[in-house]
Write a structure and sequence with these properties.
With 443 residues, this protein is largely without helices or strands. 4% of the residues lie in helices and 11% in strands. It is built from three helices and twelve strands; from the N terminus they run H-E-E-E-E-E-E-E-H-H-E-E-E-E-E.
Length: 443
C-alpha cells in the first residue's frame, strides 16, 4: 500500500477559563502540539527525538523499535524482512519496500525452499537450474528431479527402483509404484498377464513351475519358489513341498513317517489307511515293506523280495532251482524266481549310474558286451545308504555281497550279477558262488 507521509502542525487555541489552554513543556496531558521535551502521550506527529510510540512514518534517526519492513526505505535503505524466501527491494517511486518471491534461475517458477526454509507457494524444486521446474521435460536416467514431481527422473514412480532402461536399473515398469523386483502385488486377471515383481513371469504363475498361485485359485502353495507345487516328489522334510497339506515325511498325514526317513515306519506313505504292522495273514508279508515273515515289498516297484534271503551262497544253476521251489509268505513253488538283471538293479540305492534307469546299459533288453561300459563299474566301496554302506535300501537285510541274476550273456556262457559292495553290474561264470535272493511280483 502506498504511504503518504504527512506532518501536520496544529495549534489549539481556547478562549476563556472553561476550555483547554495551550500546554506547557511540563504538561503530562499533552495534545498533538507538544513541545520537544514532552513525550508522555505523544502520537505520530512527534519531534525528531520522540520515539516511544512511532509508526512506520518515522524520522531517519528513529529506528530503535522499528521492524525492518517498517523503516522508510528511502531514508534508511533497509527493506530486509528477514524472510529468505523473498527478494527485498526499495521502490523509490513510491518510497516503499517490495518483497518478491525468489526465482534465482529466472525460469518463471518460484523457489520451493531457500536455505532449508520452505517457501509458501513456491514450486521450483531446483531454483539454481533453469531447466528444472514443474512441467520441465524429464531427463531419462538422471538422478535429478528435473520435472519436480518429487522423484528422481530415473525412478519416476518413486518406488526406490531405477528404470530398467538405465544402467543397473531393474524396474520393469517405472510408471507404476507397485511394479518392482520383490513386489508382492498379485494381479489374478489372466487377460492382463501382469508381472509385478519383474521376474519375467506373470503374477498368476510367478515361479513358472506350471502351477497357478493359490491366491489366484491355483494349487501352488508357494508361487515364489518352483520347488513347491503339487508335482514335486516328496522328501524327508517337515515342509510341504507338494502342497497337499501334509509334511513331506508323512505325506498321507496318518501320523507315521515314510520308512526311508529317520524313525520312519510307513512303507506306503501315500495311503493313510496302511501303516506299519498291518498283515493279511500269518504267512503274508506286511503290506508296507516291513521286515516280517521273511519278505520285503519294495515301495518303488511293488516287487516282493525274500528278506532276509535264506538261499545262501550258490552257483547260478542252484540259485535258479532254489527260487523256483521257494514257498514263502503264502506264495508257493513256482511263484518265486531268481531276479533278472533289470529286477536286480531296482534294489540298488545311492549309485545313479547303475540304479534302475541309470547310465549303465545292461538291461533285460541288452545283455551283450556292447552294453557293458565303464558306467557299470558302480561307485566307491561301501559308500551307499544301506547298513554299513551297502548300496541297498536301509531296511533290506542280507549279506552285502554279489547276488546272481537269471539273465545270461547273449553270446558267452556266463551270467550277469550285481555286487552291492560297489553297486557294480558285471558277468561271471555260472560256476562261481554268489548270494541268492528270490523275487516275485507284488501281491
Amino acid at each position: 500500500m502506498r504511504k503518504t507521509v504527512m506532518i501536520l502542525g496544529l495549534v489549539m487555541v481556547s478562549c476563556g477559563h472553561g476550555g483547554g489552554e495551550r500546554d506547557t513543556a511540563t504538561d503530562d496531558g499533552d495534545e498533538t502540539t507538544d513541545t520537544a521535551g514532552d513525550t508522555a502521550g505523544d502520537t505520530a506527529e512527534d519531534t525528531a527525538t520522540d520515539t516511544a510510540g512511532d509508526t512506520p512514518e518515522d524520522t531517519a534517526e528513529d529506528t530503535a523499535t522499528d521492524m525492518p519492513s517498517e523503516v522508510e526505505c528511502a531514508t534508511d535503505g533497509d527493506c530486509d524482512d528477514l524472510d529468505p524466501c523473498s527478494v527485498d527491494t526499495c521502490d523509490l517511486d513510491y518510497n516503499e519496500c517490495e518483497h518478491d518471491p525468489v526465482d534465482a534461475d529466472d525460469d518463471g517458477y518460484f523457489a520451493s525452499s531457500v536455505g532449508g526454509t520452505a517457501c509458501t507457494g513456491g514450486t521450483d524444486c531446483m531454483d539454481d537450474l533453469a531447466t528444472a521446474h514443474p512441467g520441465a521435460p524429464m531427463v531419462e536416467c538422471s538422478a535429478l528431479d528435473n520435472d519436480c514431481n518429487g522423484n528422481a527422473d530415473e525412478d519416476q514412480d518413486g518406488d526406490g527402483y531405477v528404470d530398467h532402461d538405465c544402467t543397473g536399473g531393474d524396474d520393469c515398469d517405472d510408471s507404476d509404484e507397485e511394479v518392482f523386483p520383490g513386489s508382492l502385488t498379485i494381479d489374478c486377471d489372466p487377460m492382463t498377464i501382469h508381472d509385478h515383481d519383474c521376474n519375467g513371469h506373470p503374477d498368476t504363475d510367478n515361479d513358472a513351475d506350471g502351477f497357478g498361485a493359490e491366491a489366484c485359485g491355483g494349487t501352488d502353495c508357494d508361487d515364489l519358489d518352483a520347488g513347491y507345487n503339487p508335482g514335486v516328489a516328496v522328501t524327508c522334510t517337515s515342509e510341504d513341498h507338494n502342497c497337499n497339506g501334509h509334511e513331506d515325511q508323512d505325506d498321507d498325514g496318518d501320523g507315521h513317517l515314510f520308512y526311508l526317513c529317520a524313525t520312519g515306519d510307513d512303507c506306503r506313505d501315500g495311503d493313510f489307511t496302511t501303516i506299519l504292522g498291518e498283515c493279511a495273514g500269518v504267512n503274508d508279508c506286511c503290506d508296507g515293506c516291513w521286515k516280517r515273515n521273511g519278505c520285503w515289498i519294495d515301495p518303488t516297484t511293488d516287487l516282493m523280495w525274500e528278506d532276509p534271503p535264506s538261499g545262501g551262497s550258490r552257483n547260478q544253476g542252484s540259485a535258479m532251482s532254489y527260487c523256483a521251489s521257494l514257498s514263502l509268505a503264502g506264495h508257493g513253488a513256482g511263484e518265486w524266481h531268481l531276479p533278472t538283471i533289470s529286477e536286480s538293479r531296482t534294489l540298488i540305492r545311492g549309485c545313479p549310474a547303475t540304479e534302475d534307469g541309470g547310465a549303465c546299459g545292461v538291461t533285460d533288453l541288452c545283455l551283450g558286451n556292447a552294453c557293458l561300459g565303464t558306467e557299470c563299474n558302480g561307485c566307491s566301496y561301501m559308500a551307499g545308504p544301506g547298513a554299513a554302506g551297502c548300496y541297498r535300501d536301509p531296511t533290506v537285510e542280507g549279506e552285502c555281497l554279489a547276488y546272481w541274476s537269471s539273465s545270461p550273456h547273449d553270446v558267452l556262457p556266463v551270467f550277469w550279477f550285481v555286487d552291492f559292495q560297489f553297486a557294480r553290474v558285471n558277468i561271471d561264470s555260472g560256476d562261481m558262488y554268489f548270494q541268492t535272493r528270490c523275487v516275485r511280483p507284488g501281491s
